[in-house]
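Work Package 3 (structural annotation) set out to generate three-dimensional models for the target panel prioritized at the project kickoff. During this period the team completed the workflow that converts sequence records into discrete structure tokens, so that structures can be stored uniformly alongside our sequence database. As a representative example, we reproduce one entry of 385 residues exactly as it appears in the project archive.
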Amino acid sequence: MPAMTPPPLGLYVHLPWCVRKCPYCDFNSHTAPDHLPVNDYLAALRTDLDGELARAGSRAIETVFIGGGTPSLFPPEAISTLLGWLADRLTPDAEITLEANPGTVEQGRFAAFRAAGVNRLSIGVQSFDAERLEQLGRIHGPTEARKAIDAAHDAGFSTFNVDLMFALPGQEPTGAERDIQEAIHLGAPHISHYQLTIEPNTVFYARPPALPDEDSAWAMQQRCSDRLRAAGFQRYEVSAWSRPGHPCRHNLNYWRFGDYLAIGAGGHAKLTDAATGAIERYRKVKVPALYMQRSRQGRPDAEHESVPETERPIEFMMNALRLDDGFELPAFEQRTGLARSVIAWQLQRALDEGLLEQIGERVRTTAAGHNYLNTLLQRFLPGQP
């Protein structure tokens, strides 16, 4: 068995409240009460964090992602307190991202979040079209979206992300392209461009809206991709585009089968023990009130499982094959503890089918592979010959 190398380590922090839950959202988010239990939740996070840092031993944390919900509803002082607890465990160049909505209250705090130690924002714009935003249940309009991006620049954020969705109810390809052009014009250095999908346990799942057909959605994606490339953006993952030097390091660590601790209600974590070869996944209690109670008792975990060797190839590929530059075979061995011979037949089949290409030690998904990604991934499911 190849020697495993501890991968980079990130930390995900989940702040679960938002002003109003959007009808398409299947994340662990909850409508905020009149008074956020900031202090109680911080106390729970502190206990949870102590346990996570102990799990990680002496390993340094290279990235932090504070997600939600709408984390920017928390006061900057709370974020400063949280990051202060991590001061001696962060690498000097740690990337620290905070998700934010374009609401007036949140954007007014951007400079204070920057002073608290956040060095990257992810702004949930979704669209610059007023009608599309209303159909999505967003609480902001196009003006607030533009002002939020301007506020990120003014607050001194040299890098940040703008989230946009396409194939929205009533959207035409020209409308999706206008959204992309607006984000480019406003100077976004990173754009995440996702197709709207209908997920179980959402309002849209119970009452589905009329969405563009597959051909229209495909046309939107292609036109938007062409526009981004022409503006100097590089796609580094299926839905992630950035100017040179601005990819999200935290998400790259996910896609490269790295490790990540998690604190907060419903947070998911993955941790490798290179000495024993074990890879563990676990999740925190989802309901905020129960999470706070269980964390005070030192029991914030809800689920825990070991990743067996038979499932490691598909776990690795589900992430790595989304990346435009793919992966190197030695990295597969170091991250999974498996020899490359374990996937040799599956790789050769995908190469013969034109879904993958290999140059030296690097394997990457072809254009056809990206178009038929689910078919490609099935090649690496447990039990495949």
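The radius of gyration is 21 Å.
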